[in-house]
């Protein structure tokens, strides 16, 4: 019998997805300015970016990047442990630790790498990885990489989390949760989860990819907003590619944990450090995110305006107070049809379907940034209503 061929198998998956209309496609963006994108030669108003604070094109970040590139060049040339760790990285780690109220912070090249690195370092085979069902894929993959026993609890349900933790009290346990859930925009019950972890002797790991810069005092994130200390949340992960408008990520915590990650987090050890010029740009982004609170106020205003208008038009939202404001569509087909209809009208709003979200919960993932104005929100709401009517 001929052995299965991995590439032919990929081709089969692709054909199946094409037949089901669920094929994922990459589209090249030809130009981007504020909230506007150009795709296939068409100018579109985008509601898809995670650049919530509008920093990705900020002149001060560009300037910092340019200056640092003039000094250091482009690439870091090596891993952090092998001469790639430049002064810019060190300074950024200190800024991030100060901002999040932690002893130390450790940079990773992406958030995905930070989560798989930290979980594989903290968990041994057979340990308990207790996770919210709606956690980001990188948290799930980190638990799998560790060979841990993945125990998933009902979204946001602390009693369900308690049952999963109690399943094997003899094993070390890390409870991981998104701070702001990436596809729903709601915030995890961090205070109750921290209490649970203390009672059960588990370590709480919060992935605040979408909360950092956006919620909490000085934008310090969900953990700060919940009034929790470094002792309550020993492992805090944040990304630099979303509200901070750059790229990369970090894990913050006490010196023992960070030193341990340097020894054991393979996605830290065996990869090239992020370009130092990006670290320089991220330092400026942290400063703006902390001190320009008008950006968060503007987002809150846009979100309130959107939710009010959506309710008036009978759109089904989820209970989110963050700039992630999904509009539920039900079936994958309806979500795709809505997204296509919006594209025809000049709006870029991606449809999110299974397996990224549970079946029957397909949606438009609407996100806001400070680049949007009230008129943009109104235009989007009218367009969604129009396309919905046409589809029905
Ligand atoms: N965690 C969450 C909750 C995310 O939404 C994302 C990005 N999609 C990541 C981690 C991964 O971050 P990065 O894009 O920096 O790899």
From TrEMBL:
<feature type="domain" description="Aminotransferase class I/classII large">
    <location>
        <begin position="44"/>
        <end position="384"/>
    </location>
</feature>
<feature type="binding site">
    <location>
        <begin position="111"/>
        <end position="112"/>
    </location>
    <ligand>
        <name>pyridoxal 5'-phosphate</name>
    </ligand>
</feature>
<feature type="binding site">
    <location>
        <position position="182"/>
    </location>
    <ligand>
        <name>pyridoxal 5'-phosphate</name>
    </ligand>
</feature>
<dbReference type="InterPro" id="IPR022834">
    <property type="entry name" value="AONS_Proteobacteria"/>
</dbReference>
<feature type="modified residue" description="N6-(pyridoxal phosphate)lysine">
    <location>
        <position position="242"/>
    </location>
</feature>
<comment type="subunit">
    <text>Homodimer.</text>
</comment>
<feature type="binding site">
    <location>
        <position position="210"/>
    </location>
    <ligand>
        <name>pyridoxal 5'-phosphate</name>
    </ligand>
</feature>
<comment type="pathway">
    <text>Cofactor biosynthesis; biotin biosynthesis.</text>
</comment>
<protein>
    <recommendedName>
        <fullName>8-amino-7-oxononanoate synthase</fullName>
        <ecNumber>2.3.1.47</ecNumber>
    </recommendedName>
</protein>
<dbReference type="InterPro" id="IPR050087">
    <property type="entry name" value="AON_synthase_class-II"/>
</dbReference>
<dbReference type="InterPro" id="IPR004723">
    <property type="entry name" value="AONS_Archaea/Proteobacteria"/>
</dbReference>
<keyword id="KW-0663">Pyridoxal phosphate</keyword>
<comment type="similarity">
    <text>Belongs to the class-II pyridoxal-phosphate-dependent aminotransferase family. BioF subfamily.</text>
</comment>
<dbReference type="InterPro" id="IPR015424">
    <property type="entry name" value="PyrdxlP-dep_Trfase"/>
</dbReference>
<dbReference type="InterPro" id="IPR015421">
    <property type="entry name" value="PyrdxlP-dep_Trfase_major"/>
</dbReference>
<dbReference type="Pfam" id="PF00155">
    <property type="entry name" value="Aminotran_1_2"/>
</dbReference>
<dbReference type="InterPro" id="IPR001917">
    <property type="entry name" value="Aminotrans_II_pyridoxalP_BS"/>
</dbReference>
<feature type="binding site">
    <location>
        <position position="24"/>
    </location>
    <ligand>
        <name>substrate</name>
    </ligand>
</feature>
<dbReference type="InterPro" id="IPR004839">
    <property type="entry name" value="Aminotransferase_I/II_large"/>
</dbReference>
<feature type="binding site">
    <location>
        <position position="356"/>
    </location>
    <ligand>
        <name>substrate</name>
    </ligand>
</feature>
<comment type="function">
    <text>Catalyzes the decarboxylative condensation of pimeloyl-[acyl-carrier protein] and L-alanine to produce 8-amino-7-oxononanoate (AON), [acyl-carrier protein], and carbon dioxide.</text>
</comment>
<keyword id="KW-0808">Transferase</keyword>
<feature type="binding site">
    <location>
        <position position="136"/>
    </location>
    <ligand>
        <name>substrate</name>
    </ligand>
</feature>
<dbReference type="InterPro" id="IPR015422">
    <property type="entry name" value="PyrdxlP-dep_Trfase_small"/>
</dbReference>
<feature type="binding site">
    <location>
        <position position="239"/>
    </location>
    <ligand>
        <name>pyridoxal 5'-phosphate</name>
    </ligand>
</feature>
<keyword id="KW-0012">Acyltransferase</keyword>
<keyword id="KW-0093">Biotin biosynthesis</keyword>
<dbReference type="GO" id="GO:0008710">
    <property type="term" value="F:8-amino-7-oxononanoate synthase activity"/>
</dbReference>
